[in-house]
Write a structure and sequence with these properties.
heterodimer, A: 482 residues, alpha+beta, Arc Repressor Mutant, subunit A, nine-stranded mixed sheet, three-stranded antiparallel sheet, 16 strands, 20% strand, B: 478 residues, alpha/beta, Amidase signature (AS) enzymes, eleven-stranded mixed sheet, 36% helix, 13% strand, globular
Chain lengths: 482, 478
């Protein structure tokens, strides 16, 4: 890419995020809303779109939609109205999708990101509306099959204004949006499972120009990173087309992850006329202001407010705080720990170190394991009290998570208590000295740095249970007494 | 009198007296079907004898015909269209569930205009139904199979659906009682939709008392239908009162226009006179937007239909056709071939009309304007019902026409619903009851309309009228 060209162009990006809401049941019927089940096992006449069936709105999906809308600073439209979006596709059994057209449940919101100069930037959100997901096509060599399990999964489509100016901003917006939504517990936000999907509209224009350039729509990115890469590719493509004196065609393009390129899917001329009209099977109704307030009250402290508070209240570093707030459950856990134990820096180290390692290696979430905050702080306290070595404490943590048992029980069971008893330690030191006469001699001659080696030998002998400080002292004493 | 000529309330009395069993009644209906179905052709298909259930202990073991657009578990349900041939629903419509629970004996699926698109039952893929009073005439439509089944004594009761007059118009043509309840009074769950905001299921019976009995069974809120209203259902038999004294009845001048058959007009005016003699006050009223009803209806109904019928694409059920030579992509080829082969002419016409009305650039001028006029039509009725208890009109401008007479002229066919459409657009209940015969022995129907959820008013006026007159007791002897 020619750097001089870059200076004259500005990128304009808008994102459309489809979020699957994690309600128990589907949006218009009572079928379970689950991923990864036997194909077509989670279906009924309604989500199969069988003739004569009728939709009934799942109130929980509306609640989740309102909750998400409020969390991204939208105003909520109390008149709930659905529309039909008509198009033919084999994964859409009614040949129309029930969606919201002119009256989205939420509109005019925003989300903050940090721009490339480190300043806070407001990304406006145009709208967020509820709709039903389609089924899934499985292409075999001779035919295509349809799995309707996903049909009727509640979706919230969140659309930004064209406020993003770079692929990095798009990436940061997605990260912030995901984090905010995860705090609400309304979606898994898992792009791999398809519970969060993102399409991007992108155009470029000369710097200073106020009119938007011709846009292309990018689809089929399966990670935030792919969104960023696809946008970078597309900017370069736009520039090369315009730089060759040609015009960008308004079209939808598919991102090919393996080829790292985008390909034309359909042009504007081929675009569908969706023939939206009000869904006559669902009567519009009003959500009361009280109900909206109730939902608002159920929104927890959101991640960026929490970040600021943690830095201030606990005087921890922004680095530590950022890691902790990545997961609402972990941040709650941190605060619980802080109630039982004074040194928050140590708590951060334990959480951001050993605990996250344990969770990652298990591919588990904190909420999926049985570990109390009090138990963790007790464990840290034991290290402070020299009942456990740091190393042994990490093992104890592993056992605690494995078994769900408390630290005391594990230490007793495994015999991991630190050996601090002078008689026991002296015996061990004597053995070590006898086995390492040469080193002992060197120490006597003044090479104090070799003490560490002998301490290490003692630790090895005791499987880490010996109190290293005491061992060191005993070695020193013994060698100077001799 | 023949058993199959009786009304359900007469039959229930005989069963109560142990003179006959439910099985005897069914046999008499079955006998009549064997005798006359060849000529009438009221049914699309009959229930397999093995799946017939006759329970003598249930309250209403009455043989009933169900319009072919209501889902019956494991029983082919086609809307009388080739595109749904072979479709056996995996569930019962709510109305069917209620009828089964009450013991009603489902004789079969009654013939209808394809997807209820028509006023003559000539557009069925099974061929036309004949009017029992004159086999050369149409029975009306689209519930023509249901009304013909009752009129020819091939069923004691029938269930129809009414989107623009599809119960009342054929009821008038066949000399039976047909009620379109208030929109939201009867669940639509399991009714294969034509126009969702207009469709309503209703009873077709020989007299008012049976209509009230059948409404008691089928009416009520259904959590599976968001458009059904959660409102207590009265016992409709309580409104079978022989008294119209003091009731204020409006006669809309827009319904007694030029072009209406003179005999039809006279029969309805005579009926009005009869009610006047019993103490009802009658006064001319105006429903000024009536002239826009047909146009408004054909925009709204076809728009919704174009979307409702899009699901018949050959993917999951019913007909699937793949062309011998590939034209576009395999999926588009299948869609096109299936729909081109499966739908009849009138269905295609309405799908195209509706698709056009909803298209980008036309929506505001057609669909949106249609919705606005619909509101005006509704307001006409709201205004009249401030001062009146009911409105009486002819059900149809003429008596039954000849088979084939209007098939090549869709507009004249559409105009046969001119008096019934407004009740659907405004959601109010309306009933057609027999009020005379033409000089060539074809039945004439009178339409009574009332406020939303005041079916009781229709029953009260209809019951009083039937205490004085005998039109509803006339039977065809085929």
């Amino acid at each position: 890419m020619n750097q001089t060209v870059t200076k004259y162009y500005e990128t304009v990006i808008g994102l459309e995020v489809h979020l699957q809401l994690s309600t128990e049941t589907k949006i218009f019927c009572g079928c379970a809303n689950k991923f990864g089940e036997e194909p077509n096992s989670l279906t009924c006449p309604v989500c199969l779109g069988l003739p004569g069936s009728l939709p009934v709105l799942n109130k929980k999906s509306l609640e989740y939609g309102i909750k998400a809308g409020l969390a991204i600073n939208c105003s909520i439209n109390p008149l709930i109205k659905f529309d039909r979006k008509n198009y033919y596709y084999p994964d859409l059994p009614k040949a129309y999708q029930i969606s919201q057209y002119d009256m989205p449940v939420a509109s005019n919101g925003f989300l903050m990101i940090t721009d490339e100069e480190g300043k806070q930037k407001r990304i406006r959100i145009l709208r967020a509306h509820l709709e039903e997901d389609a089924g899934k096509l499985i292409h075999e060599s001779a035919c295509s099959l349809v799995d309707y399990n996903r049909t009727g999964t509640p979706l919230l489509e969140i659309v930004t204004e064209p406020d993003l100016r770079s692929p990095q901003e798009a990436y940061d917006y997605l990260q912030n949006l995901k984090l905010t939504l995860q705090y609400l517990d309304v979606s898994d936000c898992d792009m791999e499972k398809g519970s969060l999907r993102c399409d991007a509209n992108i155009s470029i224009r000369e710097k200073g120009e106020t009119k938007l350039g011709t846009k292309t729509e990018l689809k089929n990115m399966n990670s935030f990173k792919a969104v960023k890469t696809a946008l970078e590719y597309e900017i370069s493509r736009h520039k090369s087309v315009i730089g060759s004196g040609d015009k960008i065609i308004q079209e939808t393009r598919l991102w090919d992850e393996s080829k790292q390129m985008s390909f034309s899917m359909r042009s504007k001329e081929e675009a569908h006329d969706y023939r939206y009209f009000p869904e006559p099977d669902l009567v519009p109704f009003i959500v009361s202001a009280d109900r909206i307030s109730e939902i608002k009250a159920s929104i927890p402290e959101l991640p960026f407010a929490k970040l600021e508070r943690f830095i201030k209240e606990y005087t921890i570093s922004e680095y530590d705080a950022r890691i902790i707030i990545q997961d609402n459950a972990i941040s709650d856990f941190f605060e619980e720990c802080a109630k039982h134990y004074k040194d928050v820096k140590k708590i951060c180290n334990w959480i951001n170190g050993s605990l996250l390692q344990e969770l990652n290696s298990r591919k588990s979430k904190l909420t999926e394991i049985d570990l109390g905050a009090l138990e963790l702080t007790k464990l840290i306290q034991k290290v402070d009290d020299e009942e456990l070595s740091n190393l042994a404490a990490k093992d104890v943590l592993t056992f605690m998570i494995d078994s769900g048992k408390g630290a005391d029980e594990i230490i007793k069971e495994k015999g991991l208590a630190q050996v601090s008893n002078d008689n026991d330690l002296e015996k061990i030191v004597e053995e070590v000295l006898a086995e390492n006469k040469k080193v002992a001699a060197e120490i006597k001659e003044g090479k104090e740095s070799a003490i560490g080696f002998l301490v290490g030998q003692a630790m090895k002998k005791t499987q880490g249970k010996a109190n290293p400080k005491k061992v060191g002292e005993i070695i020193k004493n013994k060698l100077s007494n001799d | 009198m023949k058993l199959n000529h009786l009304t359900a309330h007469e039959i229930l009395e005989l069963i109560a007296k142990k003179e006959y069993t439910a099985k005897d009644i069914y046999q008499s209906v079955h006998y009549q079907i064997e005798k006359t179905e060849k000529e009438v052709h009221a049914y699309a298909n009959l229930t397999e004898p093995a799946s017939l259930s006759i329970d003598e202990n249930k309250s209403f073991p009455i043989p009933i015909a169900i319009k072919d657009n209501m889902c019956i578990l494991d029983q082919e349900t086609t809307c009388s269209s080739n595109i749904l041939k072979g479709f056996k629903p995996s569930y019962d419509a709510t109305v069917i569930q209620k009828l089964k629970d009450s013991g009603a004996i489902i004789v079969g699926h009654a013939n209808m205009d394809e997807f209820a698109f028509g006023s003559s039952t000539e557009t069925s893929c099974y061929g036309p139904t004949h009017n029992p009073w004159n086999l050369d005439c149409v029975p009306g439509g689209s519930s023509g199979g249901s009304t013909a089944a009752v009129a020819s004594n091939q069923a004691i009761w029938a269930i129809g659906s009414d989107t623009g007059g599809s119960i009342r118009q054929p009821a008038a043509f066949c000399g039976v009682v047909g009620l379109k309840p208030t929109y939201g009074r009867v669940s639509r769950y399991g009714l294969i939709a034509f126009a969702s905001s207009l469709d309503q299921i209703g009873p077709i019976t020989k007299d008012i008392k049976d209509s009230a009995l059948l409404m008691n069974i089928i009416a009520g809120h259904d959590p599976k239908d968001s458009t059904s209203i959660n409102r207590t259902v009265p016992d409709y038999t309580n409104s079978l009162v022989n008294d119209v004294n003091g009731l204020r009845i409006g006669i809309p001048k827009e319904y007694f226009i030029d072009g209406i058959d003179a005999e039809v007009k006279q029969a309805v005016l005579d009926a009005i006179e009869t009610l006047k003699e019993r103490g009802a006050t009658l006064k001319e009223v105006s429903l000024p937007h009536t002239e826009y009803a047909v146009a408004t209806y054909y925009i709204i109904a076809t728009s919704e239909a174009s979307s409702n019928l899009a699901r018949f694409d050959g993917v999951q059920y019913g007909l699937r056709k793949i062309p011998a030579k590939s034209r576009k992509s395999s999926i588009v080829d299948m869609y096109e071939e299936t729909r081109a082969t499966g739908f009849g002419t009138e269905a295609k016409r309405r799908i195209m009309l509706g698709t056009y009305s909803l298209s980008s650039g036309y929506y505001d001028d057609y669909y949106l304007k249609g919705l606005k006029v619909r509101t005006l039509i509704k307001q006409d009725f709201d205004k009249v019902f401030k001062d009146f208890d009911a409105i009486i009109t002819p059900t149809t401008p003429t008596t039954a026409f000849k088979i084939g007479e209007k098939t090549s002229d869709p507009i004249s066919m559409y105009l046969s619903d001119i008096f019934t459409i407004s009740a659907n657009l405004s959601g109010i209940p309306a009933i057609s009851i027999p009020c005379g015969f033409s000089s060539n022995d074809l039945p004439i129907g009178m339409q009574i309309m009332a406020k939303p959820f005041d079916e009781e008013m229709l029953f009260r006026i209809g019951y009083t009228y039937q205490q004085i007159t005998d039109w509803h007791k006339k039977r065809v002897d085929l």
